[in-house]
Structure formats: structure tokens, C-alpha cells
Amino acid sequence: MVLTLLMMKLVLIGLGLLIASSTAQIRTKGGTLIAKEGESLTLRCEVEDPSIAIIWRKNNDVVAVDDEILDTYGGYEIAMEGSTSVFTIKRVEPINSANYSCALAEPEVSVTFVIKVQVKPLVLISPDTGVYHARVGEKNLVITCHVKEGNPKPGVVWTKQAAKLPEDIKKDHEGARLVFPEVKKHHAGKYNCLAENVAGMDRATIEIHVAEPLQGEREGEYVDIVGMCLCCVLIVKMHPPHTRCWCHNICLKKGGQLLPQ
């Protein structure tokens, strides 16, 4: 029933049948408002004649008329305080970054509030394992700090816990990515990515473990099981590769070392 009455009111407004004094005006001035995500925000629209229908729009969509909310999913509240229409966004979200206008049905006058929502950063690190196992000599290890959210654009800072960030680590992508040209023992430790803007901050951590290279490892090593035979193939710079295979005295890898035959 309420919805039907509201729709009839909108139709009458469209037909210009809800007419009051042609001198009616809005006393409130519009402007730009900054809001933080999660907070509430109240817009006030004072008019000379409160008997005239007051329409609130988000961009081009009507969300409220007088003291009735049409967009019931927007998280809005509305009330009349004397000659002032009070429009409240109960919990500001990024989707509320928009133009909100208060308009009179007749004459066609309006004021606009430009809402800009500040959003705190959300940080993720890749690899996303939490702990990365590297070896001395590993080439071009890349650790990336992904800032998934944030308005205005957050600044990104990398730090190493309990130590200064090693000077032989390169930064690119505006400081969001760490590149280790060649992994060394002193690269082991915990690395923090911190993203911060006026709305807040977020932090993520990755720990890098650095082990010694495998003994006997040259350009590569692989293990293949054929029946009861375990073969260790060492790929070296000489050609053809040297292959060693034992079927009874098996060549095993343990702790990075090849056990004797």
C-alpha cells in the first residue's frame, strides 16, 4: 500500500500536479563530502516550503521521496526535521561513491552532494605460501605485494624484520615488487609489505628460508624410478650427459648428498 502511494506521488510529480509556490527554493548548498568506509554519513537538505515533495537521487536513480525510502537495499534512513530533509547512509561502502542530489518537485531545483569514499588498503603477497623455501644461487626470485583495495591510492613500503632491507634487492612496479637477482644466505628472514592511505593501513608478511645448494648439483638434477632401479642423472656442461645407475646398490639422495655406491 505504501509503495503504491509512493508510485502515485512520483507520477503526480512527473505530471507537475504537486505544485507549490514558484518561489520555493532549497536553502542548503551542495558540495563535496569525504567519507571513510564503514562510517555513517548524513546529508541535510533545508527547503523554504517543506510541503513540497523532496526527492533524493543517487546519480539518476530516485532513492527516497519525502520521508519514504524507495531503495530498501541501499542502507539508507530518512527523516524530516522541520523544514530539513535528513538523509543518512548508515554504513558507507565504496559503492556509495556517487552524486547524491536533493530536489524539489516544483519548481525544478536541486543541490548535489559529491560523495567520495575513502577505502583502507587490502594487501596480499605472492607467493601466498607464507613461507618461501629458496636456495643459495636461485636466480630472479620475485616477491610481489598486491594492493587489492584502497582509495586514495595507497603507498607501499617493504621492510625486513629486525634488519635493514638488503641493498642487493631491487624494487620495481612502483616499489610493490622485490626482485632478488641471486639468492644469498643474508636474504633469509621475514619481509613485511605495508600499504597505507588516509583511510587506514594493512600489512602482510612472508618468510624466506634460504638453504645451501645441493652438493653435486650442477645445472640440474632429477630422479627417476625404473622398476627396482633408482637412477640419478647429473646434467653437466659436457656432452653427452653422464648417467649413473645402480640396481642393487641404489644411489639415494638424502639431505642434499649422494650416498656412496
Keywords for this entry:
single chain; 261 residues; mainly beta; Immunoglobulin-like; nine-stranded mixed sheet; four-stranded mixed sheet; 1 helix; disordered N terminus; Cell_Adh-Cytoskel_Orgn; Ig_sub; Ig-like_fold; immunoglobulin domain; Ig-like domain-containing protein
Describe the protein's topology.
Elements: H1 2-15, E1 31-36, E2 41-46, E3 54-58, E4 61-65, E5 68-69, E6 76-81, E7 84-89, E8 98-104, E9 110-126, E10 131-135, E11 139-151, E12 155-160, E13 170-172, E14 177-182, E15 189-197, E16 200-211, E17 220-226, E18 229-235, E19 242-246, E20 253-254, E21 257-258
Parallel strand pairs: 1-9, 10-16
Antiparallel strand pairs: 2-7, 3-4, 3-8, 4-5, 6-7, 8-9, 9-11, 11-14, 12-15, 13-14, 15-16, 17-18, 18-19, 20-21
